[in-house]
């Protein structure tokens, strides 16, 4: 562990925290299995390419095989082996206690085309955060790009099963964040909203997004069926698509506002709360 990260203390895991950590552990082990599947797929693809190379042994294709085919096969096999080894004969296990750690919280940004995602760390330990959670606003309060803080975590260790039957712990550690003042309070969230609250919230957000996409797509196809695409200019189709999804987004926003207004009318004590407020244990 990085020298700048120190364990300030340990305590017993509460039932709610253990339930949440086990949910994260399932995701971690699924991630390891996914590495094996992706690696196996790439290795299989590489073998198929090797089998296909002899069929191109003609004078016109020999240069393509030497300069394109063989490097592609090599890269595919190399990538498959590297990705597969990240999950091969490995399993993730949880620590037995909740540790209060102190250190710098930092992040790196991953960009894929127009999408981006952040990965957060305390020292050199990767943090597992609740779904739809970002600490960018937390880290951004410091000009030098990181912020010293204390947070409660349960460590996850990825163990490699050796042929001799023993187990060795990987040096790279990850941690499930259970408490960070004003941002995350898993114990309070589960006490108030149930142990499957985060799963329900994830399914709800995912279903809502899919519903909006489906409604938008159906509306678009109603006004612009596929048989008219070739007769309509690309710019018209593109602008119509933007307008269609803008209308759907506006409709969802108005429906949500109407729902909150009705709830408030029926229960004057009702106070709407955001996902972030609930996650921080403030609602």
Keywords:
5-stranded mixed barrel; 8 strands; alpha+beta; 49% helix; 283 residues; 7 helices
Largest sheet: 5 strands, mixed, barrel
Q: What's the total helix number?
A: 7
Indicate the percent of residues in helices: 40-55%
Following the backbone from N to C, one meets helices and strands in this order, namely EHHEEEEHEEEHHHH
Flag low-confidence runs: none
Distance between the termini: 35 Å
Count all strands and give the number: 8
Residue fraction in strands: 15-25%
Overall geometry comes to flat
Strand order of the largest sheet: 3-4-5-7-6
Explain this structure:
With 283 residues, this protein is α+β, with helices and mostly antiparallel strands. Helices cover 49% and strands 24% of the residues. It is built from seven helices and eight strands. Strands 3-4-5-7-6 form a five-stranded mixed barrel. Strand 7 and strand 8 form a beta hairpin. It is flat and about 75 Å long. The mean pLDDT is 81.
